[in-house]
Amino acid sequence: MxxxxxxxxxxxxxxxxxxxxxxxxxxxxxxxxxxxxxxxWLTEHHFSDYSVCPSIPVMGTYAAARxxxxxxxxxxxxxxxxxxxxxxxxxxLLDLLSGGRVNWGxxxxxxPREFKTxxxxxxxxxxxxxxxVDIVVQAWTQERLTYKGQFFSFEDVEVLPKPxxxxxxxxxxxxxxxxxxxxxxxxxYSILMDPHSTHTELGKKRALYEExxxxxxxxxxxxxxxxxxxxxxxxxxxxxxxxxxxxxQWMLKTYVDPRMFAMGMDPVQRYVDAVVIHGTPExxxxxxxxxREEIHLxxxxxxxxxxxxxxxxxxxxxxxxL
Length: 322
Known about the structure:
By secondary structure, the protein is α/β, with parallel strands linked by helices. It has eleven helices and twelve strands.
């Protein structure tokens, strides 16, 4: 089983100076490098103190310089907002500078503020995202690129540098809806699974993905299918529940629109009951083992809702699965 950490750069109530947020995150990344994690997955967000990291290539380069073996994951680059050739260049450069340690994840985004501010119509998001991903892969794998699309067209362009990993870094697309899962399977892309669905919903989505892969002539065998799960660990179940509740309240206040995920009347309770893996370290170990059997959780990207959760997971939970 593989483990990563979904590294946010949250700035709750701006209680500390912003450089401290980055310093603490990089210290955590150094701990990941020394322990058994496969990758740190860096998040990209804009115009919100939910997570103040607008550039994965910049943060990823600094994280790579502070580590030796940890893979540097993009979790995810919001592809619909990028010029695809610039994105191809920057991720390839990060791959070179990190010694071939990049995992590339791409998503379309869902925050209306980001689309409005970047002047990208939301109704174009799926088409833009898919075209950008297609161009990035071709820019990496073709010596010279000629492309004619709906949003971008290029004629005989040599895109440099190429990534160190060949034919390109391992890649995933974020897919939460049945439509996105079906599209990813139809073109053979691996998927990243979101931290906001319930455990049961993730199991159903993974089953749909495997079914659609087979329908389009692909197989799930040999693929890492990372599932992002929120984590809350404390010395008692009651304390862990409170960490989970506060984390859910923070997300819903700053970033997540519950209507996007059909969360019903009490979205906070939904997170506590069915989304966050919470409890004592021993209970969390049992929960992960259960989810491994029930929904094929073979690659967990944990999103700790407190620093104490991260430390407890690293010291007491992770070793049980390595």
